[in-house]
Amino acid sequence: MIRSDAKSAARDSAERLMGVFRTAGAVPVETELLQPAGTLLDLYGEDIRARAYVTNDPLRGELMLRPDFTVPVVQMHMDGGAEPARYTYAGEVFRRQETDPDRPNEYLQVGLELFGGDDPAAADAEVFALIAEALAPRRLRAAIGDIGILMAAVRGLSTTEARKAALLRHVWRPRRFRAMLDRFGGRQPVPQARAALLAEADPLRDLGMTGKRTRAEIEARIEALREDAAAPHISGAELEMIDTVLALRETAPNVLAALRDIAIDLPTLEPAVRQMAKRLDRLSDRGIDVEELQFEASYGRTSMEYYDGFVFGFTIADRPDLPPVATGGRYDALTKVLGRGRGIPAVGGVIRPGILLSAGEAA
């Protein structure tokens, strides 16, 4: 199949998938192809620049080719959408693929986003079930997770608020998170350069002020590093609990039972565990076989930067080489950032019909 035919087939599939979401009450929306880079950089820092196509406009400033739909749809809704609301959309998104040249840098996304409502577990279950319905009866493997459980575990650690805040910032960067956790727990030494800096009686004595930070900012940072160096290590028992949570990978009911046991020693987990139990009940109400549904505690930590609760994905069972066909999850915190302090419950997901087509599946 030539490329133009593949695009045509993907667009036909997108129309059919959107039809499932429109039948469920979702309103079709569109977003600009060029998005303000500042919004995305504020959310993700410079990490996003390496994965996006960036350009400059003499009037609008720095812009990015749309790397996804969720952020602009959230921005649109928070700027004046009524609640509750549900939207669907379809269109191209663009991601640079410097490490994997075989993956497309332009592909079609079809999505569903739900805003508001007073039962987050029911909304989570609805989005998952609607995407499962849209993709049935293909040979897909479903998996769920909950980043909120890991975040709740971090908040329960017996350590400084600064350390907990640092760990929470890097939940979506597993290597950094692990290195930081090991250092806070004494498993890894303080980096030599930092140790040498803190050993100086006057670290700023020979420092030339040529950067963007002021002397006061640098002094505050050094003081924060000294306070961190003086803080006691996170206990071995607490590190083991975090390791146990991260390693959970079983059917959802078995993971729920394990988390209930962990919550006895780590009470900050209890609200997230109760929400997980409620979500499984709502999924069951929608006909999902939760007894066989796989739960992976670390699911979504490398590719879903703005999700902070329930996450899910659908992959082709016998094609581990391909990216997920669909992903999604809850992103309440993102609405608060884009709503300038006013947050609302929100959950959504996207389908990539081109992946089904590339695997020889009818999309």
Automatic annotation (TrEMBL):
<dbReference type="InterPro" id="IPR045864">
    <property type="entry name" value="aa-tRNA-synth_II/BPL/LPL"/>
</dbReference>
<feature type="binding site">
    <location>
        <position position="109"/>
    </location>
    <ligand>
        <name>L-histidine</name>
    </ligand>
</feature>
<dbReference type="Pfam" id="PF13393">
    <property type="entry name" value="tRNA-synt_His"/>
</dbReference>
<dbReference type="InterPro" id="IPR004516">
    <property type="entry name" value="HisRS/HisZ"/>
</dbReference>
<dbReference type="GO" id="GO:0005737">
    <property type="term" value="C:cytoplasm"/>
</dbReference>
<dbReference type="InterPro" id="IPR041715">
    <property type="entry name" value="HisRS-like_core"/>
</dbReference>
<feature type="binding site">
    <location>
        <position position="95"/>
    </location>
    <ligand>
        <name>L-histidine</name>
    </ligand>
</feature>
<dbReference type="InterPro" id="IPR006195">
    <property type="entry name" value="aa-tRNA-synth_II"/>
</dbReference>
<dbReference type="GO" id="GO:0006427">
    <property type="term" value="P:histidyl-tRNA aminoacylation"/>
</dbReference>
<comment type="subunit">
    <text>Homodimer.</text>
</comment>
<protein>
    <recommendedName>
        <fullName>Histidine--tRNA ligase</fullName>
    </recommendedName>
</protein>
<dbReference type="GO" id="GO:0016757">
    <property type="term" value="F:glycosyltransferase activity"/>
</dbReference>
<feature type="binding site">
    <location>
        <position position="301"/>
    </location>
    <ligand>
        <name>L-histidine</name>
    </ligand>
</feature>
<keyword id="KW-0328">Glycosyltransferase</keyword>
<keyword id="KW-0808">Transferase</keyword>
<feature type="binding site">
    <location>
        <begin position="306"/>
        <end position="307"/>
    </location>
    <ligand>
        <name>L-histidine</name>
    </ligand>
</feature>
<feature type="binding site">
    <location>
        <position position="113"/>
    </location>
    <ligand>
        <name>L-histidine</name>
    </ligand>
</feature>
<feature type="domain" description="Aminoacyl-transfer RNA synthetases class-II family profile">
    <location>
        <begin position="1"/>
        <end position="308"/>
    </location>
</feature>
<dbReference type="GO" id="GO:0004821">
    <property type="term" value="F:histidine-tRNA ligase activity"/>
</dbReference>
<feature type="binding site">
    <location>
        <begin position="68"/>
        <end position="70"/>
    </location>
    <ligand>
        <name>L-histidine</name>
    </ligand>
</feature>
